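Appendix B: complex inputs.
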Amino acid sequence: MAERETSLSARRRLPWPPLLIFLLLAVTIAAFALYYYQNQKKTIFREAAAQLQAIANLKGRDISGWLGERLADARVIQQNRDRVAILSAYVRDRSSAPRREAIRRWMITIQDNYHYENILLLDQQGEVVLAANPHHPTVGAEGLKAIETARQRRDIALADLHSSPQMPHIHMSIVAPLFAGDEAVGFVMLRIDPERFLFPLIQTWPTPSPSAETLLVREEGDAVLYLNELRNRKGTALKLRLSVSKNDLPAVQAARGKTGIFSGSDYRGVPVWSAIQPVANSPWFIVAKVDREEIAGPVWRLALVIFLVALSLLLVAMAAILILWQRQRASFRLDKLEALRESEDKFRYVFDNSIVGKSLTLPSGEINVNLAFCDMLGFTPEELKAKKWQELTHADDVAGTQKALDKIISGKENSVRFEKRYLHKNGSIVWADVSTSLRRDEEGKPLYFMTSVVDISERKRAEDKLKALSARNQAMLEAVPDIIMEVDKNKVYTWANHAGSEFFGADVIGREAAFYFEGEQETYQTVKPIFNGKENVLYVESWQRRRDGEKRLLAWWCRVLKDAACNVTGALSSARDITEIFNSGQALRESERKFRETVLTLDEGYYSVTLEGKLLEHNQAFSRILGFEEDKDLRGVNLPDFWQDREQRNAYLKAFVATGSISNYQIDARTQQGKKITVLASAHLVRDEDGRPQCIEGIFMDISERIRIEEEIRQLNENLEQRVLQRTAQLEAANRELEAFSYSVSHDLRAPLRAIAGFSKILLEENADRLDCEGRRILGVIDDNTRKMGLLIDNLLAFSRLSRQGMRTAPVNLAVMAKVVFAELKNLEKKRKIDFKIGTLPATGGDHAMLQQVLRNLLANAFKFTRPRKQARIEFGGRAEKAENVYFVKDNGVGFETQYADKLFGVFQRLHSASEFEGTGVGLAIVQRIVARHGGRVWAESSKKGATFYFSLPAEVSRKIEIKALME
Amino acid sequence: MDAMNPVEILLVEDNPADVELTLRALKKRNLANQVHVVTDGAQALDFLFASGAFVGKNKQPMPKVVFLDLKLPKVDGYEILRRMKSDPRTRLIPVVVLTSSKEESDIAKTYENGANSYVVKPLDFEKFVEAVSELGLYWVLLNQAPV
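Resulting structure:
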């Protein structure tokens, strides 16, 4: 530390850098201050000069303006002819008192308005004729001189500032001559007192200043005459004359014609700055001046301020630099100390915290050990320090260790490295990699041993494990049933496992692989990439000769063997006897061939393509449908583009890609010749065992013909529908016509009939006496027939009404209905003996009124046709069948001829004459129509025993109605 | 027509045979003198509303009953019914529809249009006489119209 102190103090003696910085700063500040001072000074003087000049200009202009006005007053008088005439007349003849008075008033007016001291009217000789102010009537020498000048110049003349013994105060006059023709008759004199305006104007100064003043001078001979009273000296007006030889004097410079700023000394000899200016229209010069002292005052103050500021700046800078310097030096010193401490710490830290065990052994025997070393052997540092190394070493390694240490101590080696076994505190062995070096001083005396100890127990254990593993692997290789062989790079067997020796024989080692080949083999060619290092693993099948001489197919997996430098040293191969598999594989191939043949002869087109679209396989149908020659082999070419529609193709591909298969997809395709066809296609993605897509397989069939036929059928159907619609429309029209017809019948046919009946009746009533028997009979016939026709018409209308009436379906009890109808009919033929029987009747439903009509007609028929029988028998019965209920009305009447059975139900069809049985032939037609409207049918049978009329009603309708009724 | 006997029955009928038969039937009940016959729908409207050939006869009292055939030339019976029932002057006159149609739809339509009775003309003259004269009497004598 002491050494370091001295080196630091030596450095303090020459603090060059801060000194240099300070000097530089000082010079800069001084330069700035100087520059600033000069600049400010110049500005101050410039401003003062400008002010002086401005004042001089202003005053000069004011004075000149004022004088000009006065001269103008005179000129106004002189040029007013009337005024001149009046004045001249008075000068000549002064007798008129009123005129005098008038002139005087005028003169007083001018005097008052323009602030003249006096206005004088003078005669030719300059004698006063009249005066505005009668107190100072004299003209004086200067006045007379001006009169003379005015007379000679015939113009206005000026008597400059002057005084005289008669008029001691300073004044000036302007003389205007009054001319009558060539002769000056008189003069008007305007007298001015400068104290009134001129001198105050000169003496004022626009700014407060202790020394500034303005003065007016004129040149007189070789002197300048000061015209006004001065600030610093009294009694100077028209009195102070200073010689023009005094060049310093601003007034002199003015008289010499200089204008502008002049720096000299004034009448007092004091240095002044002045602005000089001649006054226009006059012999005067104006001088505005101020003492240099006054201007320089602020400059000095400024200089002082600048100096003080610069000085304080310098002081501050100096202090700052000193402080910074001190601080810098202190931190530098700290850094040095810190670095040293850190270095020591680092060493200590490395020593203590190294994961490598370390010990430092002094010749004295004192041992320093780190924590890693302690941990390794399980002792505390204190325990270890008390031990000798021999106690810590495995008994077998003590000698070796001693030998190694001797090598260093003898100086043969600087350091030694060896492996040894330590004894752990718990008695276990710790393997260690030990490096020891001896540090000596300059004389070569040993200072201390430095030893690094790495625990390699783990490594040792791993090595042992590896050895065991290797042995196990060997055993495994021997144990596997597969043949495992090793060849060198010349394909000579160098090792075989048990299975290998079993297969090839014990003498296989040392033989080349080819020795065992059976027949021509491409095996060497196949495995070439292994031996030139291009492939690591290869599969090859090869026929080889077994020890017993049999030819076997071996499936080989060959793996390259390389040394550390990646040079091929040989190969390790495992082989399996696949002769049996091969044989069974042949059978499979046979079945595949058959399958293929089947596929090739299919009517559907079959194909398989690579994922890139190259045809792998196809059958003849494929070629035929797509318009290729049937026998042409298209394998290897791209799947032809048979699409008509791009979008359809994209949709197909999308669907295919989504699921990997597609079935019965209808495609608008075209053949090679461009013929449009429709095909139904199915395809699926073929994958290998690992699920990787291999190829696409598909079949398709040409369904163009089918589509065409379907289209035809569809059109036929459409036409049919059209026709049905037409027919329906025609039918509806016919129905409407029928309606109109029946309406017409009911009205129009009935009217004439009524007339016939009515009038024949009238004839019978009113002319009965005129008619004979025959006539009455004929009228009776007419009446009879009209009735029949009326009945016919009514029946016909009822019949036609049936097809138009709406149906109201409801459950119907036929048995009750039949009883009611029978009673009605029996009532008409009370005398007859009729046996009426009602059998079992399946429940049914329908329009009540209509079904009642059916029963009425059928029963009425039965009544009618059993009339010849003494004992009539009528039976109403029924039975349920599969889809319908059948009802019948059976009688023992006359029956009908069965050959005309089909005419029974036609309108107006009668099988009996009217004389036999009355009737219109509409009743059964009505029955037929009502039953048909209910969805049933009617038929009739007849025998000698009588007739049976059947009608059926659909069971379904009945059931529906039943359900409906139940729900209600 | 006798001006002293005001019309009590207006018979609207185009078939002359039916007219004669009807008149005969009414005659039997001594109603024939008060019957006025028109043979088409237009005439019927003119008579009822005093227009056309019947202008100026509006002073005549309205008939007490109208016998109306449905099938008429020019204006049919339904239209006459409708016009009569929508006019305050004729709204209250009873109308007996005489027709040969038995069609239910015709009957329903007639009543909808405001007919008071509906008579199907029977083929039997005697029945016809009976029906007409009874209706005539009923409406003319018993059911005095509020005129």
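DSSP finds 24 helices and 33 strands in chain A.
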